[in-house]
Amino acid sequence: MDGLNGSVVSEFVLLGLSGSWETKVILTLTFSLLYLGIILGNLFIVFLVIADSHLHSPMYFLLANLSFNDVGLSSTTVPRMISDLLKEHRVISFQSCMIQTCFIHAMGGTELLLLITMAFDRYAAICKPLHYLTIMSPKSCVLLIVMSWVMGVIHAMSQFSFVINFPFCGPNEIDSFCCDFPRIIQLACTDATKFEFVVTANSGLLTTGTFFLLLLSYVFILVTVWKRSSGDLSKALGTLSAHMTVVVLFFTPCIFIYLWPFPTSSADKYMFIVDFAITPALNPVIYTLRNKDIKLAIQRLSERGHHDRFCRLVYC
């Protein structure tokens, strides 16, 4: 069967993570636990935001969407990576490879824009408190979320539209555990120099520029608070620390991978692990440990559970 574009190559071989059998078993168990933590932790935050009326605010609405997107982003790669670890032949069809790549960039682009939206939310809350509820109205929040998803899809399709037309005639080995545009372009049987530049401009410079823009926005917020509160930054740092931690964790691997999108080493696949497995697993922990509202919501949920069990015992 030929590829979607009439190429000779109908499947790709994922080289994945190398190591002894014992190492692969340990990695399988480790990533399985991480993925379980990603699913349970992030979906718990989504459930908590929906169930607790005290969390029905723009900040937590955006956090719930970030958690939901983290589940989707991890699910595009981690389950296959786990199943492939113990396989001798790791093969992915041409169609599945292209679909996986599109989902990675669509959800990765959406995550990037969600982090920008969350930074804007913190700016409005701290620097424009009197107008916050007007700026971040329910209609505005929904619009920002929809725009994030739409722009994420556009980001993915803008690269997919030309990669899908490349001829692939071999080799077909990808030195990673998932498909991605830079790796796929390297295997094309054509001069892809100009397309390498497009990927660098689209993903690399966009990611790097956004990262520094976010850092500048946090600096601006802290300077504004410092001027208003005579040097007391403790409250602002408490509010922003979780956001800044997540931004650094997410963007650092992306910059490493896409600013130089055609590496000669396999180091980028280990950076992928940070974005797809480690960061989504840490996000619920970061937002739970550093957020008093989330802690109180968990406490209220626990007390409600004890109360419901008591009521059932009494009525029984």
UniProtKB/TrEMBL annotation:
Name by which UniProt lists this protein: Olfactory receptor
Membrane topology according to the record: Multi-pass membrane protein
This protein's UniProt keywords: Cell membrane, Disulfide bond, G-protein coupled receptor, Membrane, Olfaction, Receptor, Sensory transduction, Transducer, Transmembrane, Transmembrane helix
Originating species: Sciurus carolinensis (Eastern gray squirrel)
SUPFAM superfamilies: Family A G protein-coupled receptor-like (SSF81321)
Superkingdom, taxonomy of origin: Eukaryota
Domain G-protein coupled receptors family 1 profile per the UniProt entry, residue ranges: 41-287
Record carries keyword Membrane: yes
